Amino acid sequence: MARISLQGLGHSYLAAPKEDADWALKRLDLEWQDGGAYALLGPSGCGKTTLLNIISGLLRPSEGRILFDDADVTALPPDRRHIAQVFQFPVVYDTMTVYDNLAFPLRNRGVAPAEIDARVREIAEMIHLTDRLKKRAAGLTADGKQKISLGRGLVRTDVNAILFDEPLTVIDPHLKWQLRSNLKELHQRVRLTMIYVTHDQTEALTFADQVVVMNAGEVVQVGTPVELFERPTHTFVGHFIGSPGMNLLPGELRDGRAHFAGRPIATAHDAGAGAADGPVEIGIRPEFVSLGEQGDGDAIPATVTKVDDAGRFRIVELRLDDANAPAIKLLAPEEQPVAAGPARLRFDPAHTLLYRDGWLLEP
Prior knowledge:
Layout: E1 4-11, E2 25-32, E3 37-41, H1 48-56, E4 63-68, E5 71-72, E6 83-86, H2 98-108, H3 113-126, H4 142-155, E7 161-165, H5 173-190, E8 194-198, H6 201-207, E9 210-215, E10 218-223, H7 225-230, H8 235-240, E11 247-254, E12 257-260, E13 263-264, E14 278-284, E15 289-292, E16 300-309, E17 313-319, E18 328-333, E19 341-347, E20 353-356, E21 359-360
Parallel strand pairs: 3-8, 3-9, 6-7, 7-8
Antiparallel strand pairs: 1-2, 1-4, 4-5, 9-10, 11-12, 11-14, 12-13, 14-20, 15-19, 16-17, 16-19, 17-18, 20-21
InterPro entries: AAA+_ATPase, ABC_transporter-like_ATP-bd, ABC_transpr_FbpC, ABC_transpr_MalK/UgpC-like, Mo/tungstate-bd_C_term_dom, NA-bd_OB-fold, OB_MalK-like, P-loop_NTPase
Family: Belongs to the ABC transporter superfamily.
Organism: Marinibaculum pumilum
């Protein structure tokens, strides 16, 4: 296992990149600790797989260095990096048994038969394939084959990290939760460094201790699932994480204080002495917006325009009198009555954030 450091890393698929848009990966610096569980999260085309292939050695970066512990591996081929990689589609040998598929990486490295047998059976038990060891892989379902791919990554004891490139894409939805749980349990047992690429926020937030959120080749935030949810440092993170995503509303900064809908509002942080007055965006997640009483003069007048039942809660959409203002969404408990028509809004000050040019305004 190894601590993985990315220093000044950037990559372009063009021979002579000139503009910002020419870079698939813009300059980034990251460090992942030995034994941690990490996720690269972002939309398709944001650079996640490019970054993963650079770490594994399948791709040489245009600039920067990759260090495993303190050793520079930037120029090393994949076989000398001791990386296991699990791809989006299962890679198995259909004519071999499950046992032989799992044993294959160890036999290639000349491991003693007794050690191979012990290790294969240990991993098979972890991934719940013990009763299928003698069956040919061709007879397994897609999730069973993907378990073999996971097992081949785990069976080796000499790996520095295991990389997962959207490994649950081909898995039926009702099986994804089970495999995610298995993967989390496996990490807790083996404590190998694991890096998981996905565009699915649920997969990232349930698997990883730290999530790297990417957009357009750039890292916009690194944090725990709680940090990304409660204090997104960029509006993209607020929008991308959460269902529904964060409300982003037009506001104004006057004498260092935020105003919305013509009235001052309390926020979770100061804009800072250097923040100039002018337009800002007010970010507030639907979970932290509530309905006030009709006689509440401090609440913001609005109109309920839509109510969607989401099972345990309702997604309520409201609009202000200003026709140009965006809709505001809040989550109401299922038992709370909500009727279309006039209403009043309250924002939780502890979770009301200010943004300018997409970035969180901080002192």
